[in-house]
């Protein structure tokens, strides 16, 4: 086995692609999946995650449910509408029922047990709000040495999507994001909107995925609401695979090119709440935050082919 991986997720169309990417990669030891509120409420993200793993023929992977709300200020969060009411454009019911029961333990407890049992450091890929990860690092500081790195999808250098300056995963729980990204010392790679938008895939790519087999066909069937949204954003028929881009880096280190910048998160209650403050000046002078690897570029065709081949070809 190659990369040992835990995914923390809020499925979500792009989360579905990301989970399948890891689940269908032979060089990934997918230790577990934990769920968090986000694109849809926790009960739905948890059901989606379990049934997506069943779709990928991975009932061996344990799933545990985590946070149902942000650390603070419950009223500031709202679920996204981009993914449809069930997170998968109304097609979640088409997924097979999960045969593996939901873990009795919560998300943080599952992560702790998996980290402590691992004989080598584990990569964690949070692709939803960072509430579970903040709780893990706060309550169990001893597991830091077992984390190889955190590769997260979140943040924006320039334009946001939930607000003018804030990306959804960060905006959904900025207090948790600040703890993980700006205040902790676990190695962190941030994969922001600026790059994930450039990695968008078009209708030809989606048609190849749909023709590849049952899993590809199912993944493509989840995209109608997502396509409707990104038709306006991109100006053509295509979607942005935000979370799959981050998981590609988690399982293939270096497929994205990163630069190190000081990063802080605005966790105030004003109009810039959730903003990722990336100091790209030649001589940074940021009073808070810490140096973080920020993914800024990739070979676009290589990245798209990597994701497609893994999703289409399976293990």
From TrEMBL:
One of its GO terms (molecular function) is purine nucleosidase activity. One of its GO terms (biological process) is purine nucleoside catabolic process. Keywords: Glycosidase, Hydrolase. It comes from the Bacteria. GO terms for cellular component: cytosol. InterPro entries: Inosine/uridine_hydrolase_dom, IUNH, Ribo_hydro-like. The keyword Hydrolase applies. It holds the Pfam family IU_nuc_hydro. Residues 5-299 form the Inosine/uridine-preferring nucleoside hydrolase domain. CDD domains: nuc_hydro_IU_UC_XIUA. The keyword Acyltransferase does not apply. This is Nucleoside hydrolase. It comes from Amycolatopsis rubida.
